[in-house]
Amino acid sequence: QAGLTQPPSVSKGLRQTATLTCTGNSNNVGLQGAAWLQQHQGHPPKLLFDRDNNRPSGISERLSASRSGNTASLTITGLQPEDEADYYCSAWDSSLSGIVFGGGTKLTVL
Amino acid sequence: EVQLVESGGGLVQPGGSLRLSCAASGLTFSGYWMTWVRQSPGKGLEWVANTKPDGSEKYYVDSVKGRFTISRDNAKNSLYLHMNSLRAEDTAVYYCAISVGEVWGQGTTVTVSS
Fold this sequence. Notes:
The complex is a heterodimer of chains A (110) and B (114). Chain A has 110 residues and is mainly β. Chain A contains one helix and nine strands, in the order E-E-H-E-E-E-E-E-E-E. Chain B has 114 residues and is mostly beta strands. A six-stranded mixed sheet of chain B has the order 2-10-9-4-5-6, with no helix packed on it. In chain B, strands 1-3-8-7 form a four-stranded antiparallel sheet, with no helix packed on it. In chain B, strand 5 (45-51) and strand 6 (58-60) form a beta hairpin. Chain B has strands at 3-7, 10-12, 18-25, 34-39, 45-51, 58-60, 68-73, 78-83, 92-98, 108-112.
């Protein structure tokens, strides 16, 4: 069961901007969008954006999400040390009637 | 505040069984698809199973079909994962989550080893 495609790693400098991508197909990302999750080592994932690109309360406004066709993107501006984490996208897949995840992107803030 | 609390993990021998539970609070549990997700040590997230709000439909990743059963008790605001014929590759932290990951529990660790 194929998942969503994310770059394994992204490295950016402090206060720079990082854009993470998540590519699926018309059965998942293209159909209902993708959610974005952040996971720090040893902790459970935390929702950053739901599939409609809504940000839960408490999530920094430095983060934004968008989608174009089968690709979803997460942009983080003004990178801070606490942004260093693993980022996953997830989507409902109509062909599986299940959920597909990206492999995760490890964001390093230099 | 919405909370999900998993329990039931532990050490089990290959071929053994476990039942995981997830207690939900702070939401109308019967209104949501519920999901089990696992994460093997050092690896990414893997969808395991999910169930429709009324429990009438259940779906599984291929690797657990025939071995795992997801169920729910809406009267008790609880989600379950019955795991049989466990294998070493089932070793992971198991999370329950709402839908595609809107809310997560803290996870429960399952270790399959002799």
